Amino acid sequence: MNRRSILLSATGLVLLALAPLNADPQGYLLRVMCLVLLFAAMGQAWNIVGGLAAQVSLGHAAYFGIGAYTSTLLLGHFAVSPWIGAVSGMGLAGLFAALLSLPTARLTGHYFALATLAAGEALRVIANSWTSVTGGSSGISVPYRPGNSIWYLQFADLTWYYYLFLAALLLVTGLFWAIKRSAFGYRLCALRQNEEAAEVIGIDTYREKLLASILSAVITAFLGTLYAQFQFFFDPDTIFSLANISVKMALIAILGGVGAVFGPWAGALFIVVVEEGVNTAFGSAAAGLSQFAYGGLLVLMVLIEPRGLFRLAERLGLKFRRVA
To answer: Where are the transmembrane segments (predicted)?
Structure first.
């Protein structure tokens, strides 16, 4: 990282730290800012397996839901802190990812995507049917603790959630950056470029993809706990949602720039802000109009620059320098 990049990163961090100070601590704007940070972290978690290992997963909602349900059930039945519940959820998600990846890690392309999609949908159906534990389609509420509590990850002021999600995003991004520059990351890069050639030079591609899937699942489960503590209520169709969790995580990474360190940051900012803006503008106009407009904007964005927002910024910067 050169001096210019360090200066830009430091400036960006200062702006992010100052951003919520003038916002209403209970307002809609701050809530959207929290969601941008949380979904950016989720996209970054997906980027480990989708960006570095080139395994397009459509089942990350399974890990997300495992994390949310584990911490919520432990808190509700045994008053266990969500921090401990998050660790338990991460363990379960890692185990589930290992069991899922053992037979599917050798799959590639749409075969792997369909296998992971089926796993996420299976958990959604099980959660809907297992009413005595999950509450079924009626959903489950996170037990409320008044005041601000770091131990229980519950805050009356959204500013606390903002800084919590910002810390999570920085942590996941730092981990992604460290993996990308490590020997493990170079092995993943090699198999992404050419899996057969990577095997010829001695890389165990099966093991590397398995490790990437487990690591991505563990991080996603932790973020599921944060989401549950932020929303206070969820149901199986929400937490295991294909469109709103699995596909959205992949879209954020792909639209921002798959494999890029700051790609999910740009992707989450674009997708969450556009989604919220379109829902606000067209949500009451006609049923489905907001989703249609949101989908149209995404298609337009992909047609303009399919390699992501970072590539688009590079193209615009190059044109600007030529004109200047």
So the answer is: 33-54, 61-78, 84-102, 109-127, 160-179, 210-230, 250-274, 281-304
| Residue written as token pair 């249609």 | 292
Cα separation of the two ends of the chain: 27
- pLDDT exceeding 70 applies to what percent of the chain? 94
Specify the amino acid at residue 322.
Answer: R
What would you report as the CA-atom Rg of the chain, rounded to the nearest whole angstrom?
20
Spatial CB neighbours of 271, under 8 Å, sequence gap ≥ 6: 39, 248, 251, 252, 255, 298
CB hemisphere CA count around 95 (13 angstroms):
8
Tokens (6 digits) for 305? 């620059």
Distance separating alpha carbons of residues 15 and 8, to the nearest angstrom:
11
pLDDT surpasses 80 at 54: yes
Confidence at residue 74, expressed as pLDDT on a 0 to 100 scale: 96
> Sign of dihedral through CA atoms 195, 198, 202, 205?
negative
What integer is the mean pLDDT of 33-41? 96
* DSSP assignment letter at 141: E
Tokens at 80, concatenated:
């266990």
Query: Which residues lie closer than 8 Å to 47 by C-beta, 6 or more apart?
Result: 176, 253, 258, 259, 263, 264
CB 74 within 8 A of CB 80: yes
Distance CA(46)–CA(216), nearest Å, equals: 6
List CB contacts of 298: < 8 A, sequence separation 6 or more. Answer: 251, 255, 271, 274
* pLDDT of amino acid 215: 96
Looking at per-residue pLDDT, the higher value among 223 and 106 belongs to 223
In 3-state terms, what secondary structure has residue 233? strand
CA distance 133 to 73: 8
pLDDT band of residue 288 (cuts 50, 70, 90) is low
Q: Is 157 helix (H, G, I), strand (E, B) or coil?
A: coil
Q: For Cα atoms 133, 139, 144, give the angle at the middle one, nearest 5 degrees.
A: 90
Per-residue pLDDT reduced to its tens digit, 230-275: 999 999 999 999 988 999 999 899 888 888 888 899 999 988 998 8
